[in-house]
Automatic annotation (TrEMBL):
Transmembrane residue ranges: 38-59, 71-88, 100-118, 138-161, 167-187
Protein name: Uncharacterized membrane-anchored protein YitT, contains DUF161 and DUF2179 domains
GO cellular component: plasma membrane
Keyword Transmembrane: yes
Pfam families for the chain: DUF2179 (PF10035), YitT_membrane (PF02588)
InterPro entries to which the protein is assigned, alphabetical: DUF2179 (IPR019264), N-reg_PII/ATP_PRibTrfase_C (IPR015867), UPF0750_membrane (IPR051461), YitT (IPR003740)
Highest rank taxon of the organism: Bacteria
Keyword annotations: Cell membrane, Membrane, Transmembrane, Transmembrane helix
Organism: Marinococcus luteus
């Protein structure tokens, strides 16, 4: 039930962004929605009609390469999207004086919508179907192939909506991706650190006492110096990163520190004491 609600909310937001911001301002998209918008700009055929047709054609080619649960969710998603487009097209939306604002807000709203849709394990991209087929048959990279196919849709827009509107489309796509990552990963982002130091025990004690955080310890070996080192692996909230680095440098100014972006943290306890968080 939760996944269905996510799909409905995400698709509703996506359809609003398309009809109220993208279509009045000649902004396209990636995937089958991008194809449908280009058809709309070129032939004046509503995306509510062309989207399910294109999707069904792609599905006929690649259905055997997709998990069944994903097929069912995506069919539901595309049907719902077409209905929402048909409803919202009746709401009159005028072009904005500043197309940049339209591109920014279209990307932001689309990003939130996609975040909900992806959380439910669904999609309206369409090009992922062909990308998965190439992956299964030829071993081509799934993510890279999806990106190439979406890029081809965007490039085709140059010949239909012109280079300026295509550049606004790229802005929309970029903002949409950033916002989607925030929705999927949460605004309370985390960082992961690898710390190599001969003073790892002192560092571990200080971050436990002063930052109420914990560390996982690995045994490592430096190939150049042929020395054994203990490696600390620490996951911490992003807003506490500078304080953690300061503590490490106070113990060992020469500590080797690598910081990684973390998309998701689940399972286990990465904070202890009064700030304990079960992820």
């Amino acid at each position: 039930m939760k996944n269905i609600m996510y799909i409905i909310i995400g698709t509703l937001l996506f359809a609003l962004a398309v009809t109220q911001l993208a279509m009045p301002n000649s902004i396209a998209e990636g995937g089958i929605v991008g194809m449908s918008l280009l058809i709309y700009y070129g032939l004046d055929i509503s995306p509510s009609i062309s989207t399910p047709i294109i999707f069904l054609l792609l599905l006929g080619v690649g259905i055997r390469y997709l998990p069944r649960h994903m097929v069912y969710k995506t069919i539901f998603n595309v049907a719902l999207f077409s209905i929402f487009i048909w409803i919202f097209e009746g709401l009159y939306a005028r072009p904005m004086e500043d197309p940049m604002l339209a591109a920014i807000f279209a990307g932001a709203i689309t990003g939130v919508g996609f975040g909900f849709i992806y959380q439910a394990g669904s999609s309206v991209g369409g090009t992922s179907i062909i990308a998965r087929a190439f992956n299964q048959q030829l071993g081509w990279d799934l993510t890279g192939m999806t990106l190439v196919l979406d890029a081809l849709v965007v490039i085709a827009g140059i010949f239909i909506i012109g280079p300026v509107s295509t550049m606004y489309t790229l802005i929309t796509l970029y903002i949409g991706k950033v916002v989607t990552d925030f929705v999927l990963g949460g605004f309370d982002s985390k960082k992961a650190l690898n710390v190599v130091s001969p003073y790892s025990e002192q560092i571990s004690e200080r971050i436990t006492k002063e930052l109420a955080s914990s560390a996982t310890v690995f045994d490592g070996r430096g190939e150049y110096m042929k020395e054994q080192r203990r490696v600390l692996y620490i996951v911490i909230h992003s807003h506490r990163l500078l304080r953690l680095k300061r503590v490490i440098k106070e113990v060992d100014p020469n500590a080797f520190i690598v910081v990684h972006n973390v998309k998701d943290v689940s399972g286990g306890t990465f904070s202890i004491g009064h700030e304990e968080v079960r992820s």
